[in-house]
């Protein structure tokens, strides 16, 4: 059975590429989540006036990979103490967030946050919210790093290898 979670981890090009490496992730899609306009364009979101975060829709097979594992992987790819910034990317569109669609997942998400907070001296500022709205980005932004292997990415290349090996059966 597949499930979905929406993860905002800074620039969605690297975040998407990272999650698609994980065994059990069925598909990924870049888009915009939890803003206050209809059908935003990338250019509109880039102004930071729409309230949207660059987000990746992650569809996964929960018989292969669990939500708590994906959230643990998410924390490997972000600095959860940075507000509205990841790497060199700055602005509210680059905030970190976990947007869920199933209310039953909230206690697990909160438990992961509680556990992760113990690993940081500063407060975690990653937002956790129910997904209010989501709009896919245009085709140019889908699978960007597959189409442009030398393209910009705030994540180090080693992280992609880590994701590919993270939950492989030996």
List the topology elements.
Blueprint: E1 2-9, H1 12-20, E2 25-33, H2 42-46, E3 53-61, H3 67-77, E4 85-86, E5 89-90, E6 96-100, H4 106-117, E7 127-130, E8 134-136, H5 144-147, H6 157-165
Parallel strand pairs: 6-7
Antiparallel strand pairs: 1-3, 1-6, 2-3, 2-8, 4-5
Structure description:
This protein is an alpha+beta fold. The protein has a single domain, classed as Peptide methionine sulphoxide reductase MsrA (Peptide Methionine Sulfoxide Reductase, Chain A). Helices cover 29% and strands 25% of the residues. It contains 6 helices and 8 strands, in the order E-H-E-H-E-H-E-E-E-H-E-E-H-H. It has helices spanning 12-20, 42-46, 67-77, 106-117, 144-147, 157-165, and strands at residues 2-9, 25-33, 53-61, 85-86, 89-90, 96-100, 127-130, 134-136. A 6-stranded mixed sheet has the order 7-6-1-3-2-8, covered by helices on one side. The protein has a two-stranded antiparallel sheet with strand order 4-5. Helix 4 links the parallel strand 6 (96-100) and strand 7. Helix 3 packs across helix 4 (106-117). The chain is globular and about 40 Å long.
